[in-house]
Amino acid sequence: MKKILLIILTYILFLPSSFAIEETNKVNLQQAINIAVENNIDLQSAKLNIDIAKNQIKTANRLNNPDINTFYNLGAAGWSEPQQIGASELIEIGKRSARKNLAKANLELINESVRYTKFKLKMDVREAYVKLVAAKSVLYTLKQQQDLQENLLHIAQKRYKANLVPEIDVIQAQIALNQMITQVNSAEVNVKTEFNNFNKVINDKEGKVYDTVDKIFAEENNFEELLTPEPQMDVPTFEEIDERALANRFDIKLAANQIEVARKNLIVVARKRIPDIELVGGWMYQRANHTDDNRFNSGAYVGANIVNIPLFYNYSPEIKNAKLELDQAIMNYNSTKNKALIDLHSAYSKFLTARTNLNDYEKKIVIDSEELINVSAKSYEQGKSDITSLIVMKKSYQSIILGYTQAIENYYNSWTDFLREVNSQEFDLYADDEDNL
């Protein structure tokens, strides 16, 4: 039995590389964005709509296929009338060009929609990346607190053995440590969740797995690497950037494209009133025994029909609806512009608030809290304060550090939310208007 277990264990340890755990690729934010744009399955699927729309232009510009017609007279008519075989072709008047222009307008609409899908993917990657880094930062902070709590338990045990404090100090320190361990366990699960969400957003077509580079908020705030302005820098007012902020809005562009589509559709519908022409032609013959002169007679015939004459139905309901759809598209465009300005202002206000909060944490709260917790720890070790006060101070400090981490995450995310509203990843707060228009 032991030999069998040894063989199995050896096999597991030396499994072929094809069965090994898939390698995780460490990437920075810009690399993650580039990978997602290149390999995201949903974006690749959306791009197929462009090819579909191009084919629909060809479909709209199609010619009608001809019909083959035969007329075979039976009975007495078959003796006196010729037999016929020919073809007919429907010629549309003023309709093909209108359909083609509508299809072209739809193509431009889809192109803009795919560009927006690509931009949205970039923003989703930014957000997922920051959330994963934030989750790692929280885990890092809690592990640091766990180390401090273990050190506190060690101090309490040491002072208890020296008969300097009662046993209750050891029990309190142990309870506080156990609570911290459960928080660390929850934080580890949250890191795994955000890791999976990050890879879900990238959605790599080759199934590769990605992770953020090992940089966390508590160690370093690399705003340049996370493509975010430094919070200490002065920022312009919203009134100074509002025109530039509106310039690249995809929803406004899409609304404008919808107007163009509605206009082209109105033309297509209106031209249904134009009658079409059907051309016919062919060959006819009469056998010799069916003619008076006993000769085989044959010849050609041509004809034309005017079809689809709007006499009983003139497409008025369709035309009215097409006009209403155009009016609706214009109203939607104006509404989109109005809402966009409000959304932009709201997102920028949140960014400014997050910036202020982060600066307050860095300049005031965190530094003072670190000094206070160090003084409190030394005070307990020297017997100048009780353990309850120190545990309360440690929990307060933990809340402050976690709040600081949250403030950093909010700052990054608020900038991402602002970029979502601006619809431009390269938006520069500090550029002159001429550089961005």
Q: Describe the global form.
A: elongated
Q: Percentage of helical residues? A: 55-70%
The CATH topology annotation reads as Outer membrane efflux proteins (OEP)
Uncertain stretches: 1-21, 433-437
Distance N to C terminus: 77 Å
Looking at this structure, what is the CATH superfamily?
Outer membrane efflux proteins (OEP)
Could you describe the largest sheet, including whether it forms a barrel?
4 strands, antiparallel
Q: What order do the strands of the largest sheet run in, or round the barrel if closed?
A: 2-3-5-6
Mean pLDDT: 84
Q: How many DSSP H or I helices?
A: 11
CATH class: Mainly Alpha
Which CATH architecture? Up-down Bundle
Q: Could you characterize the architecture of this molecule?
A:
There is one protein chain. With 437 residues, this protein is α+β, with helices and mostly antiparallel strands. The chain has one domain: Outer membrane efflux proteins (OEP) (Up-down Bundle), CATH 1.20.1600. The chain is 65% helix and 10% strand. It has 11 helices and 6 strands. It has helices spanning 2-13, 29-39, 41-60, 77-80, 96-161, 167-202, 238-246, 250-270, 316-381, 387-422, 433-436; strands at 24-27, 67-71, 83-91, 209-212, 276-286, 297-307. The strands form 2 sheets. The chain has a 4-stranded antiparallel sheet with strand order 2-3-5-6. Helix 5 (96-161) runs antiparallel to helix 8 and helix 8 packs antiparallel against helix 9. The radius of gyration is 38 Å and the shape is elongated. Mean pLDDT is 84; it is low at 1-21 and 433-437.
Attribute tags:
437 residues; Outer membrane efflux proteins (OEP); four-stranded antiparallel beta sheet; 6 strands; 65% helix; disordered N terminus
